[in-house]
Amino acid sequence: MNKITLFLLLVISTISLVSCEEKFGPDVDPTPAAATIIGKWSFKSLGTITNKKSYEMLPADFSKIPGATSSSGDSISRALTYEFKTDSTYIAGNDSGKWKSSSDGKTIVLTSKVSRGFDGKLQVLTFSVLNLTKNELMFGLKKFVADANGKFEDGSFEDLFDLLLGTLALQYKGTEQEIKEVTSFQGTINLKR
Questions:
Q1: What is the spatial distance between Cα 188 and Cα 162, in angstroms, rounded to a whole number?
Q2: Residue 122 belongs to domain with CATH number
């Protein structure tokens, strides 16, 4: 190669590198890793998404619930801390078992090998994945819609758990008027890395 060709290759390479840096910026990876559920997730908050507004209860807010202690938020934080492993097993507080994802990644099913449901069988929890980024994961509980009389149906005892957990943030963060205006809601478990 002659000196002119070598010089041109050096100039073109430099321009390419500078163009790439200007497009993505010096701190941005042009090929970010896809967000994945695999790994450890700590509890951030419980939420309620309604037809009008969203509400969020942080661990510190749990001490304000009548009958709760100052360590209630810590207990909930420990119970709702998840680790999803590559071998399709999970650990959540004192619970553990198998997890699987739907093909589109929008549903996660946890089958406990420790906890039992109200029917005595090993507990199976189904969460919708409402948000998944590198550092945030939002699980959705069952969505409830009011019937013509304004009542929310809680078909089974397990549904009652989703109903109660799903309305917790609304009950303690919403006003009386906001609560009256709710016609649909979904509880969330919000996690962070």
A1: 10
A2: 2.40.128
End-to-end CA distance of the chain: 52
pLDDT digits 0-9 by tens, 87-104: 999 999 999 999 999 999
Please state the φ and ψ torsions of residue 157, each to the nearest 5 degrees. Answer: -65, -35
pTM: 0.77
- CA distances 71 to 45, 82, 132, 166, 188, Å, are 15, 19, 29, 21, 21
Q: How far is CA 153 from the centre of its chain?
A: 24
Q: What does the CA dihedral 154, 157, 160, 161 come to, rounded to 10 degrees?
A: -150
72 belongs to a structural domain = yes
CA–CA distance, 114 with 121 (Å, rounded to integer): 10
Task: Confirm whether 122 is domain-assigned.
Answer: yes
Give the H or E element holding residue 187: strand 184-192
**Number of C-beta neighbours around residue 42 at 10 A:** 13
Q: What is the pLDDT of residue 99?
A: 97
Q: Is residue 54 part of a domain?
A: yes
19 vs 64: which has the higher pLDDT:
64
Question: Position 180: which residue type?
Answer: K
